[in-house]
């Protein structure tokens, strides 16, 4: 979503043997048990966007604030440790308002004419942001076009809906622009590569079930499939076999499900990396019926006024609400990625609402607790496999085995009272293996807390009421 708001309608239960003396054991009010052999989805990461020139707010910050904001977003020891950046691929002729300018402001007169690409080296501030993210080790960059350039569309405009000329149901006098659009997206990936950023995923639609007054292009899953049949081989011919195609950024989960079923029946399921959905018009329910991965790629509270509260009666912008929102997607719907909407935004836009994680106001910034809710997930690194976790009343738990062998356990205390949580099933620690834990609540932001480790590996720490705690047991020492 974007502008204006008025357009928006919208280790299982068996206890391992305890070797520690009962006198030394911590008080254990609640037990969460990990099951290392119960394996679910692989996690690609957590992220945000700085589309529509929001990245320029970071570009324009002076040091040390610029580095502080970048640390808040990407640092894996002091910030949210985000691992995915979703960049908007511009389709507008210029940068008026907050529009993202395209690399093809004027099309050739015919679809097979030679395109005159214009690269400004900035990409609405997103190239700078991406290059900084690379320095923090981010390796997942999702380039997502809201629309094709207007000259390739049925309505001759990148805004106000319209469709890509050449997909089923269109009949443009100017011809079939599917191949030209695919070449254009390849060019974008190549330009980023030349500037040190490897685009790993490509999307060519945004909310294609919604006609917006800004960049937007309508499509259903069958029309998307028509284009995917051109885009996939075009990427492959250009040596971009490892760039994944994501589709279709529906406004909500129920439309995303329709897209998925249409893509399956059109025979392109095997050509896509992830089915992507937003959560504005319908929230994420049960897992989607698809063999592709599933990402939630954009959601935020569009209506609430700027809030930095962790918990204020469950408001839509509360940090605690976001802790639960991400949890729902990852645990109840098997998502491989959860991406917030804007990472940063100014005060003036949309009445200073909650669609951002950090408010950047000139040279000052303010951080919401939503950012710290995401930070609690930073112990889960790209490539982690979700494993079994259960137990404890008023506790929601999720566990993951990272690629390096470390184990991350993310727990939400839904109760109002503090609880000591004992995580069992980790197995006895090898020499040198440590367990750390961090808490976010009303008064703490990813604050490291004391952990007691019993002889069998059970790790205990205390979490406040309506608080969130993340445990990380380090990888076993390298065997050699
Ligand atoms: C752990 O998960 C595996 C695989 O699903 C299952 O077979 C096993 O029974 C589980 N262990 C416990 C203790 O529940
Ligand atoms: C979740 O993902 C795992 C691994 O991809 C899969 O085996 C499992 O069936 C999925 N669960 C559901 C409910 O779809
Ligand atoms: C993350 O923060 C730590 C602590 O301030 C700092 O030492 C480290 O350099 C930062 N990481 C990056 C990639 O800047
Ligand atoms: C494709 O990639 C391979 C391996 O990186 C490289 O050797 C080859 O030159 C590339 N081909 C083209 C057409 O870029
Ligand atoms: C957190 O703060 C809110 C007000 O911001 C208050 O209503 C709530 O009781 C506090 N919760 C705890 C556990 O301190």
From TrEMBL:
Residues 44-376 form the Glycosyl hydrolase family 59 catalytic domain. GO terms for cellular component: membrane. GO terms for biological process: glucosylceramide catabolic process. It holds the Pfam family Glyco_hydro_30C. Residues 383-441 form the Glycosyl hydrolase family 30 beta sandwich domain. InterPro entries: GH (IPR017853), GH30_C (IPR033452), GH59_cat (IPR049161), Glyco_hydro_30 (IPR001139), Glyco_hydro_b (IPR013780). Keywords: Hydrolase, Signal. The keyword Hydrolase applies. Belongs to the glycosyl hydrolase 30 family. This is Glycoside hydrolase. It comes from Westerdykella ornata.
